[in-house]
């Protein structure tokens, strides 16, 4: 495998640390962020750091010099509750800066961190429900919230750069990311009575491997991928709870898919499996059981 110089914007962040760790040792990795990772972070050893603000193009020119691939993770997260204009400014304009400077620097490929929010289905609006089950990358996108709109804008901008033929652009759309330290919070969220949601997830470890493959696998420029677990975080069969939650199932349902895995996710990862060779290893029932065992162990020690 070719050893690449990969610059990760936002490599000190919650997801960024896992992505950098997945790349370290295989490639030359540069973490381009506003601050370095904490000293005991798993990616700290053998990774270069350069201070970079994606809103400052000169910072990016320095950070991207000699890079083969840029993985763009820096931005404002949905969970932060930022003002609408901040999401558009940082997530959309910052992505433009990354794409423009990457093209100037002769970078081969930019991997954008998009989001499930691009489709608008996570907004759970009564006027916008899944048109198919499972939902895949051909499904229409209708975001209303500014975070989802910012991600849609970033993907559209990425497509424009890809059409120029000077830089490849790949967009990954992670589902709700579970980190080891946030599993408890996620469980509290999905276990709340009468939770009106679509019960999707991906672990940070699985997501990091998807970003690694998006940087390495040839011939995937111009593609977007949903990155999510095979299963749902709901304990019941997906078609059963989805019918109750949505007031019925869409006209297009892949019944064979849900017969093979009754708890399969609402979102398909088939494209990522086919083109990236990505295989998530998580199992939500196992995650739930391990969390309960850890809590029990902690209580006994206390």
From TrEMBL:
It comes from the Bacteria. Pfam families: Epimerase. SUPFAM superfamilies: NAD(P)-binding Rossmann-fold domains. Residues 6-181 form the NAD-dependent epimerase/dehydratase domain. This is Nucleoside-diphosphate-sugar epimerase. The lineage of its organism: Bacteria, Pseudomonadati, Pseudomonadota, Alphaproteobacteria, Rhodobacterales.
